[in-house]
From TrEMBL:
Keyword Signal: yes
Name listed for the protein in its UniProt record: MCUR1 regulator
Gene expressing this chain: Mcur1
Subcellular location: Mitochondrion membrane
Family: Belongs to the CCDC90 family.
Organism field: Ardeotis kori
Length: 196
């Protein structure tokens, strides 16, 4: 419809100095060339039915990929859950071990304190019996006070060391737990971004 009719083209060529036969040959050649070009263009084009089939194939492929992503996401989350449970169990075991150690150290300290107290008492009673002079008794008493002070300092130092060790274990556990939660959130955010 965009092209001029063959007879009109022949007339134009005739007006340009071509004979009627030349005009018809030129116009028929041009028509053949244009028809060949149009056939080649139509071969490269896709029909609406073919386009819909290709679209349905792409959509089914996308649906398969979505199902695969859902399955992968569920398996990853179950793996993370099991890893979290394992970490919780390990933390409980560590907590139990720390509590056992604290109880053991406390019992040892109490035993040592009682032994030191009984030893100091024995020293005091022995010094009281053996020493007749007030000066000697005063010296022995001062020594006993020093021994008690050293013992108290020793106990205070051990208790402070235990508290420091407990705090460092607490901080390590908190750091580990925070790292695990951050990792889980990062993985969840990654899956969320992939999903969207």
């Amino acid at each position: 419809s965009r092209f001029r009719p063959v007879s009109e083209c022949c007339c134009i060529l005739f007006c340009l100095g071509f004979t009627t036969q030349q005009s018809e040959v030129i116009v028929s050649a041009l028509v053949k060339i244009m028809n060949t070009n149009l056939d080649m263009i139509y071969k490269d084009m896709v029909t609406k039915v073919q386009q819909e089939i290709a679209l349905q194939q792409v959509m089914s492929h996308i649906g398969g990929v979505k199902k695969d992503m859902i399955i992968l996401e569920k398996s990853e989350f179950s793996a993370l859950r099991s890893e979290n449970e394992k970490i919780k169990l390990e933390l409980q075991q560590i907590k139990k071990q720390v509590m056992d150690e604290i109880t053991k150290v406390r019992a040892d300290n109490k035993l040592n304190l009682n032994l030191e107290k009984s030893r100091v008492k024995e020293l005091v009673s022995f010094a009281t019996v053996q020493i007749e002079s007030f000066y000697c008794f005063t010296v022995q008493h001062a020594q006993q006070d020093r021994a008690l002070t050293q013992t108290d300092r020793k106990i205070d130092t051990e208790v402070a060391d235990l508290k420091t060790m407990l705090e460092s274990h607490k901080l390590d556990n908190i750091k580990y737990l925070a790292g695990s939660i951050f990792t889980c959130l990062t993985v969840a955010l990654g899956f969320y971004r992939l999903w969207i």
